[in-house]
Design a protein that fits this description.
heterodimer, A: about 675 residues, alpha/beta, 3 domains, 10-stranded mixed β-sheet, 5-stranded parallel β-sheet, 15 helices, about 20% strand, globular, B: about 300 residues, Rossmann fold, Alpha-Beta Plaits, 2 domains
């Protein structure tokens, strides 16, 4: 054979660093993506839509430091509600952290624990008992053969029947009642047998017990009936939405809550809490043939009407719709109120004057003025069409932030202290020399009267102080999800990942580029690493920049000196941004390796996520753990874990970590196998 | 270097029920070696096996004494130019070569210098920064060859580098391959299904047919083997019968078969070279006009048939 001489001249230097081979693939992917108009367009649009506003907010809004709330939002109450229209049979215990609304029957052999609320239209049956730490709302009948214990509140339209006992802080002593309804009926029957002439006529639902014309009996008057044989002793609270007929004597050391028809033949000692949300007299009528001793609080939400005697150290006067609770037993005249004679008129133009102390747990609607010489505590929605004047203090304390509101259409004149933990809204004037303190928000147009009050500048200053006392400024408080958990960012990330990953593998399959790679010193691992890093760097132009730049802007414009906290949050933000960046890529590469058409791959990636989200949303109604099928939720939970936030009940950190790793590892494994199998036919 | 650079024994590769290589045996010495065979004969399978892209089903293969399967270290010693075109139209040759150099772990000035050098070697220096999308087939082939040699390998594997090129492009690539061996010292294995193209490149050939190496050695020896078999030559002329009478007098003519129009005939000859040498003087002597004369067997398929005895 004719063989020519070989003068092979290899490179003098050592051959290339094989550990860096994949970087060539990465840089090629990155450069190619940067030349793609679609990728660049989405990155630019995404940055404009999701970066500019948070950036402006960071720069323009005063803030002391970068907080976790700014990054991932205010911690939410994730105790989701459960609602079912069927029956529930539970052999074990039931723990309610959220609320449980049940249209069917709940048959329970175990206990009910938790802090949430249980609502039932049909009732509840328990053979072993209920332990209620939250609220138990019974609109059906609750058959209790077991013991009912707990510290929560029981209310509703139904009855409690059965052989079980009531015990606990809120109920009567365990041995007092076998059956409330039966007990009451037995008391009534016994009284009719003992003293048939003194029994009230119940045919028309009204009592015939003699009382004064004004419906009241002077304090200290004795009960019209002799002491009953039977007593209802309640050391805690008792509430019912149904009717309650009591012929005997009721002694209450807790609160007594009735929203149905209450007919009292005997005297009542202790605290009575009478509620009627319906505001119609026939449903919320209190007919008193006996005395009502008010030594504690008398909360009146409905119509107060009757012929009984109200005695005690408190004082009730009026026929209007008065709601609230009266306290301060040493005040002679707790409340002086004239809200008009119209029973249905809850927006009377008459005024409410508080000379003593008045605590209102429910809502207040007053078209007239409110004068405060004592203290006025409001815990619900308060709408005041008139003026607020007086020298007393007004404390407004909503149970949940921003749910309770005070609207002042007239002037808001306070010489005392106004405490706002909810929000104070309106178009009236704020005047006076008092302070406004609290953690809530003040909205509306409040014009100081300069002629009358020269210290309005001071008030303005105090208003600003109140805002600055808040943990977050108004801008950040409105951003409940935080800049890291911006849903729009997730959508753009998903869109970008779909476009970037679509042709990374599929294009190599379609034009046989695997030969280009694998006929050189490139391993499958190098190939995947190169593609992965190239895609991640491209995606990071958006996913990494948005949160990190906002975080840096917040730190750069912070007014406080606590930079250590800010940098910790910045570090967590960087970690969150990195997770976001790499999260979608393995799945995208896997889908891309299934086809040789980039368009199919792009649609496939996007639709796969979309379908997973839909499946998750459908099945989470049956089991909350289906939320783990939602890639966006996984990302969200990961942020929660990263920032040490609580996860929804039924979902644990290990579940999230497991699914997250699965979501990353399985696509990579499938991708690896696919490249071996489809790539060059190895 | 002592011994063959490529060594294969009983090499077989099956794709399901289709066989790509069938007990393929070969020793390839340094230099330029042509792998000749018709389409589907197993040339690309042989190259993929050589480059470690596929694993032999049976048998053994060695390149520089090493098994190429899953041997990334060995891949530094050869450069592969596949038969298909996977160049991006949006890239320039410089981009492509820089990327390929990066796949070999090269970078920086060293790579940039090497890229310029390689582009000059393949004659693409002037088009280094033009987009590949506007290139002719020949330019694309040269760019691919440049990609195979950017890391300066010992061995270049060129799979059908002349395929689809025009005559000018073909000549440029043939000259390039020769230059790569002569001036730059690369061993080269080049495949083609056109015998005379390979003949212009090298005398050292491996003839492959249906997955088997049917002839290995100098092309003149193979030619000799081919010449032992009768050749079919078509002759077209208005005086076909007169010509036929003289053909039968020639000792190397085996048979003459007239076509129905009797204006052309298939002449089967034992020594085609002598036939073609004698033919011009015969025509001149008879004073007849000859419309066409060509060998039916001047294609690889018939050569292979001869070689395998079919």
């Amino acid at each position: 054979m004719g063989i020519n001489p070989i003068e092979y001249k290899p490179w003098k230097k050592k051959r290339g660093d094989h550990k860096k081979r994949f970087l060539s693939i990465s840089s090629n992917v990155f450069r190619t993506n940067l030349k793609s108009k679609a990728v660049l367009g989405i990155i630019i649009i995404g940055l404009l839509l999701t970066l500019v506003i948070p950036l402006l907010g960071a720069v323009l809004t005063p803030h002391e430091k970068l907080t976790k709330d700014m990054a991932v939002g205010v911690e939410e109450d994730r105790e989701d509600d459960l609602e079912t229209f069927g029956n529930f049979y539970i052999n074990g215990d039931m723990n309610i952290e959220g609320s449980l609304s049940l249209q069917g029957m709940l048959t329970l052999d175990g206990n009910v624990f938790g802090t949430g609320m249980y609502t039932s239209a049909n009732g509840i049956t328990s053979e072993t008992g209920l332990n209620v730490s939250g609220a138990l709302d019974i609109n059906g009948t609750a058959f209790l053969d077991g013991e009912l214990t707990g510290t929560g509140t029981i209310y509703g339209f139904g009855f409690i029947e059965g052989k079980g006992n009531l015990s606990g802080d809120w109920s009567g002593e365990a041995t007092v009642f076998d059956n409330i309804t039966e007990d009451i009926q037995r008391i009534r029957d016994d009284r009719e047998m003992d003293n048939p002439d003194s029994s009230p006529d119940q045919k028309d639902g009204q009592t015939t017990n003699p009382v004064d014309d004004d419906g009241t009996v002077p304090p200290g008057s004795p009960p019209p009936y002799p002491p009953p044989e039977y007593r209802m002793n309640l050391t805690g609270d008792l509430g019912t939405e149904g009717d309650l007929l009591v012929d005997g004597e009721i002694s209450i050391n807790g609160s007594f809550y009735v929203n149905g028809y209450l007919s009292l033949r005997g005297s009542v000692e202790g605290t009575i809490f009478f509620d009627n949300h319906n505001m119609l007299a026939q449903y919320g009528e209190l007919t008193m043939a006996g005395s009502v001793m008010v030594d504690g609080e008398a909360g009146l939400m409905g119509m107060l009407q009757g012929e009984g005697i109200i005695i005690g150290t408190g004082f009730l006067n009026g026929t209007g719709n008065v709601s609230g609770s009266l306290s301060q037993e040493d005040i002679t005249n707790i409340i002086s109120m004239d809200c008009g004679d119209d029973d249905d008129d809850t927006s009377s133009e008459d005024s409410l004057f508080v000379e003593g102390s008045l605590t209102i747990e429910g809502d207040v609607l007053c078209a007239g003025d409110i004068g405060i010489d004592g203290s006025l505590y409001i815990d619900g929605v308060c709408v005041i069409m008139g003026n607020v004047t007086g020298s007393g203090s007004l404390e407004y304390k909503s149970t949940e932030m921003f749910h309770g509101e005070v609207y002042v259409m007239g002037a808001f004149d306070t010489n005392g202290t106004v405490v706002v933990d909810g929000s104070l809204n309106g178009a009236g004037m704020i005047m006076g020399t008092g302070n406004i303190n609290g953690t809530g928000m003040v909205h509306g147009y409040f014009e100081p009267d300069e002629e009358t009050y020269k210290e309005d500048e001071e008030i303005k200053t105090r208003l600003l102080e109140m805002e600055s006392e808040n943990e977050m400024s108004s801008y950040y408080s409105s951003q409940t999800s935080g800049f890291l958990r911006n849903e729009l960012v997730v959508i753009f990330t998903l869109l970008l990942a779909s476009i970037i990953c679509a042709d990374l593998i599929s294009k190599d399959i379609s034009n046989n580029s695997f030969v280009l790679y694998f006929s050189r010193s490139i391993t499958t691992r190098d190939y995947i690493s190169g593609k992965f890093i190239g895609a991640a760097v491209t995606l990071g132009l958006y996913t990494f920049i948005v949160p990190v730049v906002v975080a840096l802007a917040i730190i750069g414009t912070q007014t406080g000196s606590d930079y250590s906290t800010s940098f910790v949050v910045l570090g967590l933000t960087v970690a969150g941004a990195l997770i976001t960046t790499v999260y979608f890529i393995p799945f995208g590469l896997m889908i891309s390796s299934f086809t040789k058409r980039p368009s199919y791959a792009g649609v496939g990636i996007f639709m796969s996520f979309f379908v997973l989200i839909i499946i998750s949303e459908i099945f989470r109604m049956f089991d909350k753990r289906w939320m783990l099928a939602n890639p966006a939720s996984i990302l969200d939970f990961t942020y929660q874990l990263l920032f040490d936030r609580a996860l929804p009940s039924q979902i644990t950190g290990s579940m999230v970590a497991g699914i997250l790793l699965t979501f990353l590892a399985i696509p990579l494994a499938i991708l690896y196998i696919n490249i071996h199998r489809k790539g060059v036919g190895r | 270097m002592n011994g063959p650079i490529i060594w294969a024994r009983d090499l077989s590769r099956w794709y399901g029920e289709v066989i790509g290589l069938n007990q393929f045996n070969v020793d390839i010495e340094p230099g330029i070696t042509g792998i000749v065979g018709p389409n589907g004969s197993g040339k690309s399978t042989f190259f993929k096996t050589l480059t470690g892209l596929i694993r032999p089903s049976v048998g053994q293969i060695r390149m520089f004494g090493q098994d190429p399967w899953n041997n990334t270290a060995l891949m530094r010693d050869f450069g592969f130019c596949p038969d298909f075109d996977n160049l991006s139209n949006e890239q320039t040759p410089r981009d492509f070569l820089t990327f390929v150099g990066g796949l070999h772990g090269k970078g920086g000035e060293e790579l940039a210098k090497r890229v310029d050098e390689v582009l000059d070697i393949v004659g693409m220096g002037d088009a280094a920064d033009r987009k590949i999308g506007g290139f002719s087939k020949g330019m694309r082939q040269r760019t691919k060859i440049a990609g195979a040699m950017v890391h300066n390998p010992k061995l270049l594997l060129l799979d059908e580098p002349l395929s689809g090129t025009d005559p000018l492009g073909r000549r440029e690539i043939i000259d390039l391959v020769k230059k790569l061996h002569r001036q730059h010292g690369h061993n080269i294995i080049v495949s083609s299904h056109v015998l005379h193209e390979v003949e212009r490149l090298t005398h050292q050939v491996v003839v492959i047919y249906k997955g088997r190496a049917v002839a290995v050695g100098d092309i003149s020896d193979i030619r000799g083997m081919i010449d032992k078999h009768p050749h079919n030559i078509i002759v077209e002329s208005k005086e076909m019968e007169e010509l036929a009478k003289r053909f039968v007098e020639m000792p190397f003519v085996v048979s003459i078969q007239f076509n129905p129009d009797r204006r052309s005939a298939i002449v089967q000859v034992q020594q085609p070279d002598e036939f073609f040498n004698a033919f011009p003087s015969l025509v001149e002597e008879l004073g007849c006009e000859v419309d066409k004369v060509y060998s039916l067997d001047d294609n690889l398929e018939s050569v292979f048939r001869y070689l395998v005895g079919w």
